[in-house]
Amino acid sequence: MSSPSFTKIYRQDTYPAIDPSRPENSVKDKTVIVTGAGIGGIGSEVALSFAKAGATKIAIVGRTEKTLQGTKTAIGNAYPKTNVFIAVADVGKAESMGCAAHDIRVAIGAWDIFANYAAALPPLSTIAGADEDTSWDAFEAIARFPFHFAKHFAPKARPNATFINANAGASHLPAAQLPKCSAYCAAKLAAAKLDDYLAVENPNLRVFTVHPGVIDTSMLKQVFGNTGGKELPKGISAVLSQVALPAHFTVWLASAEADFLRGRYIWVNWDVEELTSRRQEIEKDPLLFKIVLGGWPFQETKS
């Protein structure tokens, strides 16, 4: 298994340009919200990386208080000056998200950076063989989140705030390459298109959609694993990225250096220095890194 890359350099681990300790990536005095932030997941590493970058206040959101407490403890041990607030909530439920948004606003104030790394995966199945309610619940947890964000969190943001929504490289793949993942892939594709609308409808909000790379998580093992979902096949193992890569890339997206990528879908594996060097090329093409229907290039004819 191999992945195409817009940049010649395909990153699988962190590097100096995205290091949270780099002054240009500082989020000192910023307030951050991270969903899917239970210990052991990508969101937990994202929260830790923002703490390393100097975030003053971080709200971590997830369904399980125990795993969130693990992340809070890890941040407290490494960065004791960072104030961490736990919000137990289900990102798939509007009422739960509304309560979390209110509690976070009361506890730590308006926010500057929001990173959604919550994940949901229904049991693998064909469409005909799937339990419809279970699949639809997972679809809604992913695809409805931009609505929850727009209604409950966006009004509580500071000016020029940043919203980073983790997606999945799976949304790029044809169905034949990822069988029995219809609900998950379709939901991710829908969420990416909704991010596009969020960016247009909120011109003062910095919106980014991100593929976090292929990370060795329990979810990845469910999709590609064998021997009971405990191991990964060699083809997948060869393209794995270290969890520090999406975590640090997310911090970099919050910096001014990433402004030219606003409203676009990017991969954390793409080298940011090369992306920056191709800024004019990217800005010139309004459809580049956008979710549109491929196969029929509907666009204005160049004169």
Layout of strands and helices, then pairs:
Layout: E1 31-35, H1 42-52, E2 57-62, H2 65-78, E3 83-88, H3 94-108, E4 111-116, H4 132-143, H5 145-153, E5 157-166, H6 182-201, E6 206-211, H7 218-224, H8 234-237, H9 244-253, E7 265-267, H10 272-277, H11 279-284
Parallel strand pairs: 1-2, 1-4, 2-3, 4-5, 5-6, 6-7
Helix pairs in contact: 1-2, 1-9, 3-5, 4-6, 5-6
Summarize the structure.
38% of the residues lie in helices and 14% in strands. The chain is built from eleven helices and seven strands.
Can you give a write-up of this model?
Helices cover 38% and strands 14% of the residues. The N and C termini lie far apart (40 Å). Strand 2 (57-62), helix 2 and strand 3 form a beta-alpha-beta unit. The protein has one domain (16-284): NAD(P)-binding Rossmann-like Domain (Rossmann fold). It has helices spanning 42-52, 65-78, 94-108, 132-143, 145-153, 182-201, 218-224, 234-237, 244-253, 272-277, 279-284, and strands at 31-35, 57-62, 83-88, 111-116, 157-166, 206-211, 265-267. It has 11 helices and 7 strands. The protein has a 7-stranded parallel beta sheet, with helices on both faces. It is of the alpha/beta class.
